[in-house]
Write a structure and sequence with these properties.
homodimer, 294 residues, alpha/beta, 10 strands, Nucleotidyltransferase, domain 5, 5-stranded mixed sheet
Chain lengths: 294, 294
C-alpha cells in the first residue's frame, strides 16, 4: 500500500511516499517559499503515484486542528511571511480524492516515535515529543489520540524559573521574551554569546543553563501529563546535551515521583536523520485508510 | 440506583450515598484519623445501604492508579502520618462485593465539573480542575478519560518564573522549596506575612503575587493540554481572586493563543460547597455499573 507524507517545516518541506511498514520508496525535500509554489511541488510529487491511498501532513503552525471549524486545515496566524491564513489542507483536497490526515509537525514526530516504540515491543500508552530547534514545540500522543482540544499544544511559550547565572538575558520571543522558546531556541545562542550553538563546546556553561530550562520543560510535561517517555529532537539536541538535561531533571524532581530509568525516559528519537515525522505520517495515513475501510 | 462516594482528604472524609442523577440521599463527614478507623467509618456508613451498586473513591495522594501494578489502590508515600502504604481499595474490596472506582481527589472533582458542564449543555471534551488549598494539585479529563499514564499528574511541583516582588521568599515545599505548591498553597500566607490568608484583604499586594503564579499554572495547563475549561477550587480561591488570575493570564498570554472568553475559561466550580468530587464520584460509580452491565 502506498502512503504519502508531508513534513511541512518553516524552512523546508520533506515529502515522501512509502508503505505501511514505514519503508520510504521515494523522498524529496525543497525549501519553503510561497504557499502556492511549495504546496504545488508536493502535489506534483504525489501525482506521480496514482495508487496512493492516503496522505498525512505534519505542519508547522499554528494550525487549525478543530474539524468543526471553518478554518480546519489552515495554517493560521504564523510569523512565517506569506503563510498566514493558508488553506493547506484545502489545496491538497482539491488535488487528491484521498483521505488526508492533518496535524502539527511535533504531533507527527510524536506519532512516529510512538509507532517505533510499539514496534520495538515497548508497551507505551503516552509519549511526548519535543523539538528544540529554530522554535520549540511538543506533541503528545495518549492512548492513540493527540492531546489538544481547544487547539494544539504550544508548550514553547510557558514560563520558567530563571537560572541564577542567566538573569540578565531577556529572551528572544517576540511575544513573551523569556518563555521556554525565548530562552532555549537555537537562535538564543547567538543572542547570548554572539556565536552559533554549533560553535560552542558542550563544556561551556551556557549549555548547563540550557539544560536547566529544558529539564524544567520535561518536568512540566511529567507533572501535567505523566507520559511514559519524553523524546527530544531538533537541532539543539544531542545525547551529550540530554545527559545534562537528565541531571538537571533529577535535581529538580528531588525523588518526588518515580519515572523509572531516566535514560529510558528522556531520550533522543529512535528514528534516524529527523525521520520521526515521516514515519508518523505513514502510520497516520495508514490509520486513515483503515478507518475509511471500516 | 444507589451509588457511593468517598472524598478522602488528608483532613476530613466526606462519604455520601446518592443516585445517578447526582442527588445526595445521605452524607456524613468526619476527621481523618488512622487509616483503619477512618476507612472503617466509611465501610460502616455504606453497610447501611445493601442496595448500593457501586462506589467511587477520590483520594488524597500520592496514590497508585496503574491497574497492572501490585500496589494498585494504595495510598503510596504520603507525608500524612500513618497513611503511607495504605491498601485503601483493598480494605473496601474486602467489605463490598461491588465495582469500586479509584482515582485522585482532583480527578474526582474534575469529573464532577465535567459532568455538570455537560449536563448544562456545554460541549466539553477536556477540562482541568485545580485545587489551591492546603496543597496544590490538578486533574484533567480528556474525552472521558483521565490524563495520567505513568501515574497521576502532580502539577503542584512545577517551577515558575518568580514575581519580582517575591524573590526573597524561599517557598514552603519540603521537596522543592519554590515550586507552585511551595509558592501558593494556603500556608504560604502565614509564611510570607505572619497572617492567615483569610485575614489578608484581597487588595493586599500578596494576592497579586499569588495571582501571577496561579496564572502561570493556568498558562502551563493551557499550553500543554489545551482544555476547554480550567476550574479552580480550594480554600484559597474566590471569584475576586480569579479576576486577578484572569488579568495576569491575559498579560502572560499576550494574545498568542485564543482561549475564548476568559470568564468562561478560568472559572470557579459549578458545584456548590466543594461538592464537585461527590458529584464526580456518583458519575464515576454510575459509569462502573454501566460498564459492568455491558
Amino acid at each position: 500500500m502506498l502512503l504519502g507524507s508531508i513534513e511541512a517545516g518553516g524552512t523546508k518541506f520533506v515529502c515522501a511516499v512509502g508503505n505501511e511498514d514505514y519503508q520510504v520508496k521515494e523522498q524529496i525535500q525543497y525549501p519553503t517559499t510561497t504557499p502556492e509554489e511549495t504546496i504545488q511541488r508536493s502535489i506534483d510529487f504525489f501525482k506521480k503515484y496514482p495508487d496512493l491511498r492516503a496522505i498525512s501532513v505534519a505542519s508547522f503552525g499554528p494550525i487549525e486542528i478543530r474539524k468543526n471549524t471553518e478554518k480546519y486545515g489552515y495554517i493560521t496566524d504564523t510569523p512565517k511571511v506569506g503563510w498566514s491564513q493558508t488553506n493547506f489542507l484545502g489545496m491538497l483536497q482539491k488535488a487528491f480524492d484521498l483521505p488526508i490526515y492533518w496535524t502539527t509537525d511535533v504531533n507527527g514526530s510524536a506519532y512516529g516515535e510512538y509507532t517505533l516504540a510499539l514496534a520495538s515491543g515497548n508497551q507505551i500508552d503516552a509519549l511526548t515529543y519535543y523539538t528544540i530547534g529554530t522554535g520549540v514545540g511538543a506533541g503528545t500522543i495518549l492512548n492513540g489520540q493527540f492531546i489538544g482540544t481547544l487547539g494544539h499544544p504550544e508548550v514553547g511559550h510557558v514560563r520558567l524559573k530563571r537560572h541564577p547565572d542567566d538573569l540578565d538575558f531577556k529572551g528572544i520571543c517576540p511575544y513573551h521574551g523569556d518563555c521556554l522558546e525565548g530562552l532555549v531556541a537555537g537562535p538564543t545562542f547567538e543572542a547570548r554569546t554572539g556565536k552559533k550553538g554549533q560553535d560552542i563546546p558542550l563544556s561551556d556553561h551556557v549549555w548547563d543553563i540550557m539544560a536547566y530550562y529544558v529539564a524544567q520543560a520535561a518536568l512540566q510535561t511529567t507533572l501535567h501529563i505523566r507520559p511514559q517517555k519524553i523524546v527530544f529532537g531538533g537541532g539543539v539536541v544531542s545525547e551529550t546535551f540530554l545527559k545534562k538535561v537528565r541531571h538537571e531533571f533529577a535535581t529538580l524532581m528531588n525523588d518526588y515521583q518515580d519515572v523509572g530509568d531516566l535514560e529510558d525516559y528522556i531520550t533522543m528519537p529512535i528514528a534516524e536523520n529527523n525521520g520521526s515525522a515521516t514515519i508518523g505520517n505513514f502510520a497516520l495515513a495508514y490509520r486513515e485508510v483503515k478507518s475509511a475501510d471500516n
